[in-house]
Amino acid sequence: MRRFVAGAFLPITLASAMLVAALPGNAFAQTAPAENVVPVDPSNVQTSSPHDLEAIVISGRYPGPGLWKIRKGDHVLWILGSQSPLPKRMDWDSANVERIIAGSQEVLMPPAVEMDADVGFFRGLTLLPSLFKALKNPDGKTLSDVLPAAQYARWQVLKQRYIGSNRSIEEWRPIFAAVELYDKAIAHSGMTDKDMVSDVVRRTARKHRIHVVTPKIAIKIKEPKSALKAFANETIDDQECFRKTLDRIESDLGTMIQRANAWAEGDIDTLRALPYSNQFNACFAALSSSAVARKEGMLDVEKRLTTLWLDAAEAALAKNASSFAVLPASQLLQAGGYFEAMTAKGYVIEEP
Description:
By secondary structure, the protein is an alpha/beta fold.
């Protein structure tokens, strides 16, 4: 059983979801040996130069942002806004967060989708052939076959820069190739997608025996092999996801570094002021709109997760003098987010 947090990229449902739910480890990292690809002339492809980005990613010990508070009478829900990616070599000083968790009666984690294919280790291994087929484009097509020429040229430049020579990825669906490219670009730029915040929060709650609640949608994949086979033969509309991923890597890495640094330094004003682009919604929409995803219950997921979290937050405020929660900072700072919904319900929001 694997859990995927809302607000982060959700390459869930179908191939990736059934993979991580059913198999040991992450098979997306298992690629064929690297091979040479035909080089592309980058003269007509404009991308920003990332070679000096690592130098401006901060390192060392930093406090992270202050905490938001939602009040109901004398009850308070403390909220930490998380950020991804973060500086790879940052040491988060979490002493204040740990102190508040220790004095709370409940910890509320971000809402999540929980996938369960209910297969054991050895049966899971038998799904590998179906899985790798589902990762690939139907009918043996490659990225050069399914992408517009200009977009494919952009891909080749970024691929050579961040992934290197690897012919096997050319057979992948655009959405999965985009995920791999994004992960490699983040790592190359001196950042990490590792969820250090949730790790510390869960560990602290465990240490002090604080009850942890994760609002979740549980989806059981009853026939993972059949679902993988159906997905392998289905064409999905994932080019918008792919294009937005290229856009973000080409033009937004600098801003992502600024956001990562601002989070580490506790600079909420900068986090609020910096533009926030997100290709993940387009990627999730591509997967969740497929026939297999709809059959497995992946409808209105974001709306359902939001409702679950709001219900859990109200319950925590009603019964606990002090509760602690984690949510993506982007969702706390955006218009129409969780805070707006809580304010509409009459709760008082206090900023850090």
